[in-house]
Amino acid sequence: MGIRLVDLPAEIQDAVQRTREDVASLHAELTRYGLVVWTAGNVSGRVPGADLLVIKPSGVSYDELRPDTMVVCTLDGVKIDDGTPAGLTPSSDTAAHAYVYRHLPGVGGVTHTHSTYATAWAARGEEIPCVLTMMADEFGGPIPVGPFAVIGDDSIGRGIVETLGESRSPAVLMRNHGPFTIGTDARASVKAAVMCEEVARTVHVSRQLGDPVPIPQDLIDRLYDRYQNVYGQH
Ligand SMILES: [Zn+2]
After folding, report:
1. In the CATH scheme, what is the code of domain 5-229?
2. Nearest-angstrom CA–CA distance, 68 and 230
3. 22: annotated active-site residue
4. Angle CA(14)–CA(26)–CA(102) in degrees, nearest 5?
């Protein structure tokens, strides 16, 4: 027997509803910043107080995303009886998102896109060097590259968790695929996706002009600590 949303305690149902509203509206940021085409890309959020996540449905146009069509899944990535039509299935990237939530308890949101510049770096399998103060602030160093992994098992999720475990960056460029970003909530993961594309573009342009100048590690550390503490990003 599957879990039925209507059978869960009222406070959990309220938390699911808030997460659905949050995740649905955050998808508009992906189109606003030009990070996605067609139905590619997805945002998910962990439901506070429950072992559930909310994610974009598969194959639905961005114009048609509403809170009540956001799919509710267990942290094993299995859709619960959430009131959506049976034909509405969770994003094909759900297993990767679920793996991240199971293995990184501090993560409350995950975003995935194929944004052009970040994905161009991923196609070359090259990390984005930390050559901008905003990179030191937001990412605390280079944006790392994760392994090549195909959809269908845990390999994408495992690649994300293992790569980010060795980095301060909330973004990983999965090789030949594109960026996955994490945050304390869904909004923070979307912000990381927007910033990841921005620095991927700027560092690419800088490369066309010559060799970008690296920032010394001690200055990266100072910028990162100041930004993360003063602005309370974590
Ligand atoms: Zn993808």
Report:
1. 3.40.225.10
2. 37
3. no
4. 65
Q: Report how many helices (DSSP H) and strands (DSSP E) the chain contains, helices first.
A: 7, 7
Residue 184 CA to ligand 1 centre (angstroms):
21
Radius of gyration, alpha carbons of the chain? 18
Catalytic residue of the set 137, 154, 185, 221: 137
d(CA 180, CA 193): 7
pLDDT tens for 81-98 read: 999 998 999 999 999 999
3-class secondary structure, 99: helix
61-72 pLDDT, tens per residue?
A: 999 999 999 999
The pTM for the full model equals 0.96
Could you confirm whether 7 is annotated as catalytic? no
Domain layout of the chain by residue ranges:
5-229
Q: Indicate the SS3 state at residue 4.
A: strand
Tell whether the torsion through CA atoms of 189, 28, 179 and 69 is positive or negative.
positive
Task: Classify 148 in phi/psi space as left (phi over 0), alpha (psi -120 to 50) or beta.
Answer: beta
The CA 142 to ligand 1 mean position distance, Å, reads 21
